[in-house]
Design brief:
about 425 residues; mainly alpha
């Protein structure tokens, strides 16, 4: 009888202490979260998907974004999904570390920017977006830049300077070539300036590659990107005004010994544009120092100082123009796979890091395919678990007191069960030891 009473008392005390411990831990966790200033955990906790399904889930989310941005139908989405994995595992793309999800992200960006909307046949849009993503990824590999950043730049080039996909890639070849000048600006810097201010240069009559050459010449004088963009805008706009120049500007042109209409005409001819720019800079540099600044200020506004620095380095300006003079020496439209960007991307793909990135891309493709194969089973399991969770929720909502009691008793009994299980195992071990 006494042993029974003692056992009952111990069990009662264990349940009470366990309950107190449970509430103490809960309160302590809340207090810790509040003191850290961070958000509390989500109600019920978040469900972490299995690692095997994560690549497929990420790709599925990316494709959902693309479908929303492009308004593609199921068949077009299927076309894009098939081409995406081929693009992502291509050596010139994979070598730069661009993932399949990023490839889809670049397609979504292009769709939002309106790339391909002007095609006569809307059914060609999936191929156009895939081509855009592939081009951006290859440029990212060659320039060692994030793929999404390059895609943003490429889309802005095409929209602002009204370039086709082929012309935009040739411009990337040109900036890549200009980035190889000794002690010169990097291709990424030239491209960023053109992204913001290239429109003024091409509107004035310069070809995109020539606009890139002027940009490189400005940057190579030590001019910062923001100032270089302002100077590119004001310089090319002034040269392209022609008979629209004000009386004061016409007077300044006259002091330089130049006719504004002849300058504008020369700028619009791709064969004479570089010579026209060099003539203007040489005429400005030939002026006395006290007049030079005033003339530059009159003609080129806030970009005058950068233009003056460029005028003092005519050999560097000429070198930039010579670097992109012949598209047959660097442009993909002329050379195919031997273009400047593709050759640099190919060189990276042959490095150990490039080979590792290519292997990772192939592994990711397998992971996505495996996840897609398992997804139907996962969906069935999720539906079953969801139904079970709904049933338990309904039970908890209809019988809150019983639910609280069950949870409390379960939390209290858990350590007791552990102790009892250990005692049973110890006793069994003891019996076996005695038998041995």
């Amino acid at each position: 009888l006494k042993l029974g009473l003692l056992t009952t008392a111990i069990e009662s005390l264990t349940v009470k202490l366990s309950a107190q411990r449970l509430f103490s831990q809960a309160m302590g966790a809340d207090a810790k979260g509040e003191s850290a200033g961070g958000p509390k955990s989500k109600p019920g906790g978040g469900i972490e998907p299995p690692a095997l399904l994560k690549p497929a889930i990420a790709m599925d989310s990316a494709m959902a974004d693309l479908k929303k941005a492009s308004q593609f139908g199921p068949r077009q989405i299927q076309q894009v999904a098939e081409s995406t994995q081929q693009i992502a595992t291509a050596p010139l793309v994979a070598a730069g570390g661009t993932t399949a999800v990023e490839v889809v992200g670049m397609q979504s960006l292009a769709a939002r920017k309106g790339i391909g909307n002007d095609l006569p046949d809307a059914s060609d849009r999936p191929q156009e977006l895939s081509r855009f993503a592939s081009d951006a990824a290859v440029i990212a590999t060659a320039s060692r830049r994030p793929a999404m950043e390059v895609a943003e730049m490429l889309a802005d080039w095409r929209i602002s300077m009204k370039l086709s996909g082929v012309q935009a890639f040739d411009l990337a070849d040109a900036t890549n070539q200009l980035g190889k000048l000794p002690n010169g600006a990097k291709a990424a810097e030239i491209g960023t300036v053109l992204q913001r201010d290239g429109t003024a240069a091409t509107s004035a009559g310069l070809a995109p590659a020539q606009a890139a050459a002027v940009t490189a010449a400005l940057l190579n004088t030590g001019t910062k990107q923001a100032e270089a963009g302002l100077a590119l805008d004001s310089f090319t706009t002034a040269l392209g005004k022609g008979d629209q120049a004000s009386a004061t500007e016409q007077s300044a042109w006259k002091q330089l010994g130049l006719e504004p209409t002849a300058v504008a005409s020369g700028l619009r001819d791709k064969d004479t544009a570089s010579g026209t720019v060099m003539t203007v800079l040489a005429a400005l540099n030939a002026q006395p120092a006290d007049k030079r600044s005033a003339l530059a200020g009159t003609l080129f506004g806030n970009g005058d100082e950068a233009v003056l620095r460029m005028a003092q380095k005519l050999p560097d300006v000429n070198a930039a123009f010579l670097q992109v003079k012949d598209p047959g020496q660097y442009a993909t439209s002329q050379l195919g796979n031997d273009g400047s960007v593709r050759q640099d991307a190919l060189a990276l793909s042959k490095t150990q890091q490039g080979q590792l990135n290519i292997l990772n891309a192939r592994s990711e493709r397998l992971s996505v395919a495996t996840g897609n194969a398992l997804m139907p089973s996962a969906d069935t399991s999720s539906q079953w678990l969801g139904s079970l969770a709904d049933g338990m929720s309904e039970l908890a909502e209809s019988s809150p007191k019983a639910t609280a009691a069950i949870v409390l008793v379960a939390a209290a009994i858990k350590p007791l069960v552990g102790v009892l299980l250990k005692a049973v195992v110890d006793e069994m071990s003891s019996q076996v030891a005695k038998r041995v």
